[in-house]
C-alpha cells in the first residue's frame, strides 16, 4: 500500500474543507447538497431540477445575485460552507 | 526531363517525346512564391498570388518580426458577380476546426486533349484561405445565425440539443440558441425572455458607457434577488438587501426592467406576462414607473422603489406613474402584428434614457437630466417593435462575431507560430463596442414587407448597410499594409496591389475585422454529489 494514499484522501493544505454543504432553495423548498469544492455546479443544478421535476432551461440559479453557470464550481465562485443558491423561475413577458 | 503528354486524337503515330522542362520553368517563373490563395463566395472573391508559398503567416506582429513580404490581392464584392453560389454558410461555428498545417505541394493537371504549339502548363498550386472567420469582415449573416428550425445538429446522432446550447455569453448570463432564434419572431413565442432582456441590457450598458456615466442597469438576476429578500418574511430583509448596496455605489441613475413574474419559485408555473420599467433618478430623489400598458404593475414598482431607496439612500423617493408614456401597441409603427412588444418597448425606453444621460452628462448638464415624460414625448418616441427586434438580433450577432474573430485569430496565430492553443475562452475577453456595427442598433424603420420576405430582407438590408457604412469603406482605402478589400458596384474585379513591406505584419490592417455523479440521500434531507 502506498504511503502517499490516493489524492482523494489528501486534505487541502490551506485548511479549507474539501467538501462544502450548500443549500439550494426556491423559497418553498430547501435541499442540502454536500459537494466537492472542485465539482462543477452543473451536477448540483441537474440534481435539484431532477428532484423538483423542473426543466433546467426554465430556472435560474443565483449566488449573491449573480447567475451561476453550469461550468462554475464552489472554488470559482469562492463559496463557503453553508452558502445558499437561490433558484428562480425564468421570466418572460410580451403583452 | 519532362515530356509533353501524347495526344489522344489519333495522331499518336507522329508523336515524338519533346522536352518541355524549359517551357514549364518559364511558365512558373516564381515557383517558390507562385502559390495562389483564393476564396470565392457568392459576393466575394479574393485571390492572392504571392506570399503563401513558404508558410502560413500569422495575423499580428511577431517578435522577432518575420521577413518582409510582398503580395497582391484581388478582391471583388460585387453582388452577383459570380455564378457559383458559395458563401460562408459552410463556415458554421460548430464546424470542426480545420487543419491549418500547410498543405503539401500538389499539382493540378489539365486532362484535355490539345494540340497547340505551346504545351499547356500546369496550374499553379492553389490553397484555400485558412479559416476565413478569423477576419471580422468575413463574417456573414449566414454563419452568425443559428440554424433555425433545427433542434439537433445536422448529422449528429449523439442527442446533443442544439437549441439549448449557448449562442453567446454575456456578463449577466448565457444566451441560448433558442433565445436568439425567438428575438425576431412576432407570435406568442416572441415574448422576451429574461436572458434576451439581459443581453439587451448588457449591450446597452456597453454602448452607452453605463459605468462612465454613473448609470446602473439592473438585470433580471439582481431583480430576482431583491424580490427573494422581500419574500423571506413578507417584509424587506434589509440585511440581505444591503449586501447589494456596493453595486449601486456611485450610480446616480438606476434603470430596472420589471417583470410580473419576478419572484416566481421553481415549483411555480407562472413565468410572467409583461415587462415594464422602473427608473430611479437619485439626484432628484424621484422614481418613475413607465409602462406601455398603463399602470398594471404599479404596486410592484412601488415596492421595488421602496426597497431601492432604503438600500442605497434611506431617503424618500417621489414615486410617479408616467401617464404620458406611449402605448406599446397604439404607438407602435411596426407593419406586422407583434404579439409581444413590451420587451422591445422597454429596451427602446432604456436606450432613450441612457442616450439622454450620456449626452447631458458629457456636457456637464447633470441638472437637466430627468425621467419625466413630457406630453409630446409620444410623438417623438418613434417606436417600431420589429425594427427594435431586428436591431437587437443583429447587434447580438455582431457581438458573437467579434468574440469568434478574436478567438480564431488567436488560435490561428498560435498555430502558425508553433505556440500552444489557448484553451480558456475567457482569455479572449469581451469585445468592446467600437468593433460593432453600432449604427445598426439604432437603424431606421424598415418599409412594409411581407412575412415571406423577412429572411431575404434581413440579408438585403445587411448588405445595403455594409455597402453604405463608412467604416467598411474606410477599411479598404486606408489600408497601408495587409489585405485590403475593395467594394464596387459594377460586377467586375478590381485589382488592388499592396506592397506589404511592414515588418512581420500580415493582414493586420483588415478592419473588417471532475468523480462520477453519485447521488445518495444523506440522512433525511441531504443529497451528496
Automatic annotation (TrEMBL), chain A:
Source domain of life: Eukaryota
Pfam families, per database record: Rad60-SLD
Sequence ranges assigned to domain Ubiquitin-like in this UniProt record: 18-94
Listed InterPro entries: Rad60/SUMO-like_dom, Ubiquitin-like_dom, Ubiquitin-like_domsf
Name of this protein: Ubiquitin-like protein SMT3
Organism: Paraphaeosphaeria minitans
Record lineage: Eukaryota, Fungi, Dikarya, Ascomycota, Pezizomycotina
TrEMBL record, chain B:
A molecular function (GO) term: cysteine-type peptidase activity
Domain of life: Eukaryota
Sequence segments annotated as region (Disordered): 464-486
Coiled coil: none
Domain Ubiquitin-like protease family profile, first and last residues per copy: 173-353
Alphabetical list of Gene3D superfamilies matching this protein: Adenoviral Proteinase, Chain A
Alphabetical keyword list: Hydrolase, Protease, Thiol protease
Alphabetical list of SUPFAM superfamilies matching this protein: Cysteine proteinases
A biological process term (GO) from this entry: protein deneddylation
Composition-biased stretches (Low complexity): 473-485
PANTHER family: SENTRIN-SPECIFIC PROTEASE 8
Family, per entry: Belongs to the peptidase C48 family.
Protein name as annotated: Ubiquitin-like protease family profile domain-containing protein
Amino acid at each position: 500500500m502506498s504511503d502517499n494514499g490516493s489524492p482523494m484522501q489528501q486534505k487541502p493544505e490551506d485548511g479549507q474543507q474539501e467538501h462544502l454543504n450548500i443549500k439550494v432553495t426556491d423559497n418553498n423548498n430547501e435541499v442540502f447538497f454536500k459537494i466537492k469544492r472542485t465539482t462543477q455546479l452543473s451536477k448540483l443544478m441537474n440534481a435539484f431540477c431532477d428532484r423538483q421535476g423542473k426543466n433546467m432551461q426554465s430556472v435560474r440559479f443565483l449566488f449573491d445575485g449573480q447567475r451561476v453557470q453550469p461550468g462554475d464550481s464552489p472554488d470559482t465562485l469562492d463559496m463557503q460552507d453553508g452558502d445558499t443558491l437561490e433558484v428562480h423561475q425564468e421570466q418572460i413577458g410580451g403583452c | 526531363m519532362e515530356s509533353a503528354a501524347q495526344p489522344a486524337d489519333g495522331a499518336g503515330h507522329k508523336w515524338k517525346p519533346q522536352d518541355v522542362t524549359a517551357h514549364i520553368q518559364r511558365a512558373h517563373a516564381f515557383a517558390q512564391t507562385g502559390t495562389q490563395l483564393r476564396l470565392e463566395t457568392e459576393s466575394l472573391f479574393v485571390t492572392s498570388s504571392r506570399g503563401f508559398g513558404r508558410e502560413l503567416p500569422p495575423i499580428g506582429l511577431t517578435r522577432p518580426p518575420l521577413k518582409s513580404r510582398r503580395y497582391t490581392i484581388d478582391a471583388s464584392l460585387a453582388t452577383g458577380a459570380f455564378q457559383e453560389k458559395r458563401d460562408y454558410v459552410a463556415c458554421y461555428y460548430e464546424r470542426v476546426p480545420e487543419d491549418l498545417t500547410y498543405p503539401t505541394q500538389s499539382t493540378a493537371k489539365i486532362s484535355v486533349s490539345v494540340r497547340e504549339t505551346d504545351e499547356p502548363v500546369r496550374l499553379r498550386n492553389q490553397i484555400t484561405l485558412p479559416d476565413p472567420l478569423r477576419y471580422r469582415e468575413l463574417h456573414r449573416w449566414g454563419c452568425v445565425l443559428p440554424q433555425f428550425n433545427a433542434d439537433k445538429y445536422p448529422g449528429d446522432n449523439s442527442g446533443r440539443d442544439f437549441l439549448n446550447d449557448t449562442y453567446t455569453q454575456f456578463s449577466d448570463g448565457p444566451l441560448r440558441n433558442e433565445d436568439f432564434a425567438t428575438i425576431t419572431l412576432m407570435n406568442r413565442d416572441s415574448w422576451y425572455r429574461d436572458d434576451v432582456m439581459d443581453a439587451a441590457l448588457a449591450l446597452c450598458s456597453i454602448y452607452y458607457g453605463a459605468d462612465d456615466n454613473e448609470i446602473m442597469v439592473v438585470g433580471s438576476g439582481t431583480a430576482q434577488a431583491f424580490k427573494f429578500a422581500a419574500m423571506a418574511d413578507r417584509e424587506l430583509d434589509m440585511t440581505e438587501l444591503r449586501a447589494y448596496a456596493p453595486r449601486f455605489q456611485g450610480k446616480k441613475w438606476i434603470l430596472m426592467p420589471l417583470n410580473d413574474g419576478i419572484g416566481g419559485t421553481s415549483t411555480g408555473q407562472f413565468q410572467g406576462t409583461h415587462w415594464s420599467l422602473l427608473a430611479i433618478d437619485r439626484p432628484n430623489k424621484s422614481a418613475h414607473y413607465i409602462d406601455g400598458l398603463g399602470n398594471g404593475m404599479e404596486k410592484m414598482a412601488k415596492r421595488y422603489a421602496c426597497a431601492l431607496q432604503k438600500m442605497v439612500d434611506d431617503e424618500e423617493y417621489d414615486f410617479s406613474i408616467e401617464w404620458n408614456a406611449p402605448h406599446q401597441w397604439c404607438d407602435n409603427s411596426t407593419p406586422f402584428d407583434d404579439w409581444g412588444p413590451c420587451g422591445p418597448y422597454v429596451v427602446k425606453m432604456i436606450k432613450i434614457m441612457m442616450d439622454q444621460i450620456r449626452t447631458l452628462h458629457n456636457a456637464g448638464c447633470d441638472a437637466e437630466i430627468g425621467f419625466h415624460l413630457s406630453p409630446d414625448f409620444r410623438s417623438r418616441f418613434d417606436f417600431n417593435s420589429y425594427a427594435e427586434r431586428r436591431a437587437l438580433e443583429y447587434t447580438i450577432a455582431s457581438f458573437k462575431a467579434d468574440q469568434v474573430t478574436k478567438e480564431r485569430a488567436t488560435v490561428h496565430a498560435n498555430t502558425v507560430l508553433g505556440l500552444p492553443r489557448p484553451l480558456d475562452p475567457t482569455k479572449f475577453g469581451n469585445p468592446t463596442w467600437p468593433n460593432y456595427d453600432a449604427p445598426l442598433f439604432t437603424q431606421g424603420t424598415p418599409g412594409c414587407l411581407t412575412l415571406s420576405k423577412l429572411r431575404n430582407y434581413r440579408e438585403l438590408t445587411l448588405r445595403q448597410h455594409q455597402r453604405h457604412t463608412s467604416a467598411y469603406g474606410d477599411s479598404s482605402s486606408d489600408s497601408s499594409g495587409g489585405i485590403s478589400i475593395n467594394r464596387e458596384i459594377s460586377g467586375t474585379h478590381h485589382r488592388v496591389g499592396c506592397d506589404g513591406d511592414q515588418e512581420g505584419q500580415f493582414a493586420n490592417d483588415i478592419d473588417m475585422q471532475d468523480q462520477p455523479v453519485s447521488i445518495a440521500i444523506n440522512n433525511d434531507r441531504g443529497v451528496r454529489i
